[in-house]
Hints:
This protein has helices at 2-29, 39-43, 86-96, 119-137, 147-158, 173-179, 219-228, 252-263; strands at 48-56, 59-66, 75-79, 101-105, 141-145, 163-167, 206-211, 234-240.
Amino acid sequence: MITQLVIIGIILLFVIPSxxxxxLQHKIIFTPSYHKRRGLFKEYPxxxxxxxxxxxxxxxxxxxVYEPEVKAEQTILYFGGREQDSVxxxxxxxxxxxxxxxxxxxxxxxxxxDGDPSEAAYHGxxxxxxxYVEQHxxxxxxxxxxLGSNIAVHTAVRRRPFKTILVAAFESVLALSRAKKLPxxxxxxxxxxxxxxxxxxxxxxxYLYVTVDDGFVPIKQARKxxxxxxxxxxxxxxxxxxxxxxxxxxxxxxxxxIEKVLKQ
Length: 264
């Protein structure tokens, strides 16, 4: 009887959560969105120009570039979060950084981009996006938020951006799962996004901005990333209070910090 209870307990505590995570993680990690409200794009077509990039046969990614009225001294290449339509967000970024060229592409399955999301596709596409941007607009500053922070780290390790800015970065998908008290083995996680394993190899100026009140990413994960980063490369690390995960990117304090980075 006791043995049976132990077996039932193991199934309830470990097996069932692991199976559910394995089956549902694609929907949990990737939440494609498409926002049709692109009023500024239509109102100022000379400022917001659509881009399209073929990343493999039959797969085209939707992008946009914001060109300021004055000649841009810097270019931001933005990698967005799992629920963001990053193309639409360029309009919002342009209101905060009006003198900076801003470029972003929607991930596969997001906006009007073709294809299906996956970690391998995101990483591979990001390198092609970077090469395209560097060829046509010059060396960019990478800005990665949440899931996009991993994409930015992965890209910065394999390319030479001018600078890399991470906002609301996390350690890995497995670490996030365990922070939610999900007792799952590592082999269950198909899309790992392990920034913790790559951040030490970033060789360009690095900036990390996180919030103690994130509510989604425990602050200890950001501190682990800080500890792993090359101390000579990590230019700035700041922890803010009073902002949750969704609020941090466009908070006054983080926007102020990013403005300073762009002026350096």
